[in-house]
Here is the input.
Amino acid sequence: MAGVATAGAAALLLTGCGAAPSSSNASGSATKSDYTACMVSDSGGFDDKSFNQSGYEGLQNAAKDLGINEKHVQSKADTDYDPNLRSMVQQGCKLTVTVGFLLGDATKSIATANPNNHFAIIDYNDPTFPKNVKPIVYDTAQAAFLAGYLAAGTSKTGKVATFGGINIPTVTIFMDGFADGVKYYNQKKSKNVQLLGWDKDKQDGTFVGDFKQVDKGKVLTQGFLDQGADIVLPVAGPVGGGAGSAILDAKSKGKDAKLIWVDSDGYLTAAEYKSVILSSVQKTMSTAVESVIKDDKDGKFDAAPYIGTLENGGVALAPFHDLDSAVPADLKSELDQLKKDIISGTVKVESKSSPTK
Amino acid sequence: MSEKTTPEPQAPGGTTPEPQTPGGTTKEAVASDVALDTAGGQMPPSAVPAATQLHGGDREGSVMHKIFTGNAMVSVLSVLLAIVLGGILMAVTNPKVAAAAGYFFAQPGDLLTEVIRPYTALVQGSIFNWAGADLSAQLYPITETFTVATPLICAGLGVALAFRAGLFNIGAQGQIIFGALFGAYAGFAWHLPIGLHLLVVIVAGLVGGAVWGGVVGLLKARTGAHEVIVTIMLNYIANFLLLFLLTTPAFQRKGSTNPISPFLDPSALFPELLGPQFRLHAGFLAAILATVFVWWLLNRSTIGFEFRAVGANPSAARTAGINVARSTILVMAIAGALAGLAGIAQVSGTEKYLSGGVAASIGFDAITVALLGRSTPWGTFFAGLLFGAFRAGGVAMQAQTQTPIDIVLVIQSLIVLFIAAPPLVRAIFGLNPRKKKTTTSGTAGTHAGGVKSGAAA
Here is the structure.
């Protein structure tokens, strides 16, 4: 005990002898701008491996690349949104990015009360937003369509599955696109690949009930695997980890199953599952956030919604990485052609949940 | 009953009265009991002798009682300890502190500034913002504290009241959700004249909470089902029912499929007390009225006397001719209604719409609030204000100094931990300098010894 204390004191003594920074250093480097961009998370937090996290990365990149100040606050509950947004305005934020439809009302009311501050909101659009709010939304169905086609073309059992966190538009848009991709593959190839977990016509399917119960995601995935599905698309933020661990378990028992990640490239962000991640339906939120911040800093802010599509790279199908060999070459070229067709409008991807201009 | 035949009251924390102990624990205990019963002298003593009210019941109940009704000093010291520990935690996790510690001997002030900065922000965000541009900006924090405290106080009163009747009400969360659900529906689906509408919303919310609480009382009284289990399960049911209802068109906005309800009609909202730039609403006045009501109920009414008698010793209460079943159902219904009022404060005052997270974690924080307030009405009121200040200040702390908001939750949790272990707190502050012989066979006695020796090691 005494030894530990002595060692601790010695360590303190040794570490405490450094020189104090000169006061000129405190104001930061000369290139630092006095522009401040801020962000308020929803109750998922910045470590949700989903849109909060991607948005946060965009903010960090902007701070680094543009030499601006950044502030961010994390909301713990739905009741935190309004006070958190107010505090960001008080902190002198020129642009505040909010994340998700849950912050829609708070963003609208705070933006109305502070017409000189700018706001951007990820994944939500409300036609009644005032002129200082820029919605950042995604036509995710386009990329999910490619994922559905890919899954149908790669599946060996002829069954693929998906499940969602909660039945809300930003989740079901993935499932709609995925379902249509599978359907399109069946039509083109006269096959009968089945989709479990989502019925596009009824707009109903399998849901966890929230974005937190990772173990439930695992149980659901095991259920799908037992029913014969070999590719699973979890659209449930961190709950996707449950699907990942179920598939890893199945793989260790000699079953061939794969995962399609959502929002970010799971090979990079959920590396523990990279050996089973076939691809990811990406929403490149960080680049969108960074470009909105850059525009605002340069005085080019406008309230027109940013809609991420395959065309502008806002949504994309991630590379296959380690599982590249699992995808036949002709399927790859078909996917490339399909992407071109969706961009040109030859193939129409429609979802009830797609954002409107 | 046998342990109750001795006329001597037992001191809380399991310390047996010993004449030679310094400080005179027996006297202290009785004094604290009386202080508790009279809410620190603000209220005249109640009809049932203080010591009997608090230390009655079966053994399991008496341990819970000690945790819930420990003396005021322990509450204050617990808060203090938690703040100090929170400060240390912030210091170790903050890279700037580490940097400042690196040149501690050159500029010791820097380290201290870095440690104190978050707490300064906490005060600026919860009481008075001296850096504010005008008076309204300076006073905004305290109004925010009141706003956040409102549902905590209401739900805390519900937990405290049930506890005084010997029931451990974990179900405030579900009762808040039910109150909010009923109240919000009456608020956005019906369009009534101004004045009447708010009244209908409040009544609907009270009924919603009372039903959800009353069910617990009914199950307990009729079947003997344990209220802790029942309330926890009912929390789940309420939560998932809310999530389900929000997926149905009846609870969604026109043309939207997001799980969020329409705004309540303006006529269904609590009036703003200080204008639109503040969030403070008349729900805070309702919380004060509720506190007065609970005080009156417990200390002035026959029903409240019965509640306390049942809480002290159900068998004795039954022998004395009190209808224990009726008291149990009634107290849970009233506790539920108080939590329902918290739900109304949320939908009709602060948030103005219903969402899946409308109850946040208020129902669970309410347990802590009641615990910290030692289950007295005014104690709960001030504990609610303290927690409101933590929440409101936590926002500023996070925004100004980028300290993780989790620190505030850690501080809250530490408070609970310390309140639940009074001997630990007393040992830390040297209020129990010598290890006393524990002659009681009660769990609390051995517990005290165990914790003390643990703390000494």
